[in-house]
What does this fold into?
Amino acid sequence: DEGGFSDPFLIVRNGEGPEHYKDHMDKLQKNTVNPEFFFLSEIKATLPGDAKLTIECFDWDSVGHDLIGRTDIDLETRMFSEEWARLDPKPIEIRPLYHPSSHAPQGKLEMWLEIFTPEKAVSTAPVSLKPPEPDRMTLRLVIWNCINVVVPDKTYADLFCSASMEGSGAPQQTDVHYYSHPLSNPPAFNWRCVFHVEVFENMARNAKLKIAVWDKEFTGANDALGEALISLIPMYKEALLRKSRKTREERTVSIANQWVTFQHPSYPGERGKVMISMDMLPTKDHSEAQVGFGRSAPNDSPKLSKPKRPSLFLIRLKKAILWCNAHRKIVLAVVGAVLLIIILAILV
It folds into this structure.
């Protein structure tokens, strides 16, 4: 699908007829490359006879489903194997999914298989499957400042940044650095964003942080100047490894100040850099030692000072002077019209 994602579901078949076919479209997973199905599929088989069990993964589409890949299992080899029969519980298997058009696996299926007689199937309670509980983590992001920001057709710009994560609510924004200039007034924010996120076992969900840079417009939509996508999987892995350590400091994963390059899909090359730092820790630890959003209290870990910026009043005054200078004829016409009205009012 567009964007590289799919809407996968599974079909299980063994032999001919409806009782040997299970369509699990009700377990369809939307817009993912790492589906988590967690369901039990029961299907009848006649052995010896219907030896091949086929599990197919399809990408759902409104005009016809596309095969992603399949795996075949020889049930007779399993059933008549004394070694396999002695295994209890049966092992979890990681099976590659193949498509007829390729020799390379198109994914992997994690599963296990059991074969019961009709009598044992009736007396054996089905296994209840559910995904493992996610670990709840908190990401503390600090957006420090930007350099080399490209603003088309402008010398000065009113810049701000936004940060967002899938599954963590609406984007969070810094304050606005008005009338920023690469040399005389470089954009600085010293702004903290806090995201609460669920970290799942395969770490595929909520795994990207997006930081965008904007030029604020007072009429109409703000101008997007560029964005950067940051994979959080390395932080997730380290945070899960540390989550059982003794102290909060030991359970915290920190990334010190680093420059992140952002780009724009409509323009080639780099469009600027933003400096960030990040801490990830269990949400329970965050709750016991909270930090404020932006530069609000409690302001520590780290303590964020207000950036040195020119007075907003002086900025607006300078903008007004520049506007008047750029539109001198209009200003003179307006002033002349006002003076004329005053003179006429006095004469009358």
Q: What stands out?
A: The helical segments are 75-79, 82-86, 118-123, 233-242, 248-251, 283-288, 312-326, 328-347. The first helix runs from residue 75 to 79.
